[in-house]
Amino acid sequence: MADVDAFYRKIKLRLIESGEWDRMKATIGPKLNESGWLDDIKHKGVDRAHEMDQLSFQTLFEEMSTAGHVGLPLVVRREVQALIREYLEKQFE
């Protein structure tokens, strides 16, 4: 599992350094906004923060990360996967 985590970190670093990460975000961001996903996550985060007796950024972040992954529209998820797959194929030809 450590090898997979190290590989993931290397790929993410390459994406960031090459500017591909920002390009992917620019492609996906509007689609997430149009689908209502961004507003949904924001509202869930605000509601959850108000419910917490003692506000914990770490707990809130973890809960919203999980909610974000679970609630990600399938069409957007597939597009992100396709973009990453395309990038990896170019890198490892």
TrEMBL record:
GO BP, one annotated term: mRNA export from nucleus
The UniProt entry's coiled-coil ranges are none
Q: Which ranges does the record mark as transmembrane? A: none
Record's GO cellular component, any one?
SAGA complex
Cite a single GO MF annotation.
transcription coactivator activity
Q: Which Pfam families match?
A: EnY2 (PF10163)
Q: What is this protein identified as? A: Transcription and mRNA export factor SUS1
Q: Which organism is it from?
A: Gymnopus androsaceus JB14
High-level lineage: Eukaryota, Fungi, Dikarya, Basidiomycota, Agaricomycotina
